[in-house]
Specification:
Elements: E1 3-18, E2 23-39, E3 43-47, H1 54-61, E4 69-74, E5 77-78, H2 84-93, E6 94-97, H3 111-121, H4 127-140, H5 157-169, E7 175-179, H6 187-204, E8 207-212, H7 215-218, E9 224-229, E10 232-238, H8 239-244, H9 249-255, H10 297-301, E11 307-310, E12 313-315
Parallel strand pairs: 3-8, 3-9, 6-7, 7-8
Antiparallel strand pairs: 1-2, 1-4, 4-5, 9-10, 10-12, 11-12
Helix pairs in contact: 3-4, 3-5, 4-5, 5-6
The structure holds adenosine-5'-diphosphate (ADP) and magnesium ion.
Magnesium ion binds at residues 54-55, 179.
Length: 320
């Protein structure tokens, strides 16, 4: 598969200010040296506990937040080097779907207005063409075209997320970063929206970076999965390899929480000790060592690099 986008050593540090003078006294290392490649047509699932930097990573990739360091290479260009204007043509191809379908739609605008807005911003096509495109896309996401004259509050959570998806599709994007697109929805609706995203991917040859906080959500939609812990990638592998044999003790713990369809198979649930440490003050060595059942002396001192231990299977752990 051809490479679509490369993330190289990406970092985003937020300054922590304190005191009367608001001096910078430290940094929250929300994303700390993350690298991966997205291939055309694939769907990379990104999981990890709340606060581990998933949203920050998604937004820095799209340059909605400027990275502290590192590169995002798309179309042979480092997006971080581009000015706002130079970035504009790429914004069409790189779209985002947000977690909260309530907050991400302007409640005072009609659906038609919300969905056609990207075309107006980019000054694309005539009013009539925009309308035709909107009708086509509404139908694709499973919404009646008559809904165009209504307001967001008239819709259920699942329908609103479909509206958000329609808006993201209006500019024929190549890559969609979906930041926990189903987390706010009822379980019964989650599967419908996931199926829709999967159908759309096939139809429009989309590439996804799909963010979720647990492994069960990304299982069906992903071709590869990355597991993040405190701003870093702990493990990155093709889906089947990861679900069959998770290598990182953190991935193993997350995996033990995924329900098994067969009730005769009992899986030992690994309960992680303690809370996620603060990303402002991460533990020394391997950031996971404070909660790891396999912790060795070296883990407290030396940070493990992400290395390929089986074909295409990367893990950052001293056990390997
Ligand atoms: P996730 O999406 O995995 O829950 P986030 O990317 O939202 O994680 O956050 C990662 C870390 O960065 C958290 O500790 C969060 O508090 C911090 N953070 C996120 N946004 C900001 C910001 N604008 N300013 C300061 N800290 C932030
Ligand atoms: Mg988030």
């Amino acid at each position: 598969m051809a490479e679509l986008l490369q993330v190289r050593n990406l970092k985003k540090y937020y300054p922590v200010k304190s005191g009367v003078l608001q001096r910078t006294t430290g940094y929250v290392k929300a994303v700390d040296d993350v690298s991966f490649t997205l291939h055309e047509g694939e769907s990379l699932g990104l999981v990890g506990e709340s606060g581990c930097g998933k949203s920050t990573l998604g937004r820095t990739v799209l340059q909605l937040i400027k990275p502290t360091a590192g590169e995002v290479v798309y179309d042979d260009k480092n997006l971080s080097d581009l000015s706002f204007r130079e970035m504009k043509p790429y914004r069409k191809e790189l779209q985002m779907i947000f977690q909260d379908p309530y907050a991400s739609l302007n409640s005072r605008k009609k659906i038609s207005n919300i969905v056609t807005e990207p075309l107006r911003i980019h000054k694309i096509s005539t009013i009539k063409e925009r309308e035709e495109k909107m009708e086509e896309i509404l139908e694709k996401v499973g919404l009646n075209r008559a809904f165009a004259d209504r307001y967001p509050h008239e819709f259920s959570g699942g329908q609103r997320q479909r509206i958000g998806i329609a808006r993201a599709l209006m500019l024929n994007p190549k890559l969609i970063i979906a930041d926990e697109p189903v987390s706010a929805l009822d379980v019964s609706i989650q599967a419908q929206v996931l199926n829709l995203l999967q159908d759309l991917q096939e139809e429009f040859n989309l590439t996804y970076l799909f963010i979720a906080h647990d492994l069960s959500v990304v299982k069906h939609i992903s071709t590869r999965v990355g597991v993040m812990y405190l701003g870093r990638m702990a493990e990155l592998a093709p889906k089947n390899a990861l679900y069959k044999e998770p290598l990182h003790p953190y991935t193993q713990a997350l995996m033990s929480a995924v329900p098994v369809p067969n009730p005769l198979i009992k899986r030992e649930r690994i309960i992680l000790k303690g809370d996620v440490p603060s990303p402002q003050n991460p533990p020394s060595g391997c950031a996971f060592h404070t909660r790891c059942s396999a912790c060795m002396a070296i883990c407290k001192e030396q940070r493990p690099e992400l290395k390929e231990v089986q074909k295409d299977h990367f893990v950052a752990c001293h056990l390997y």
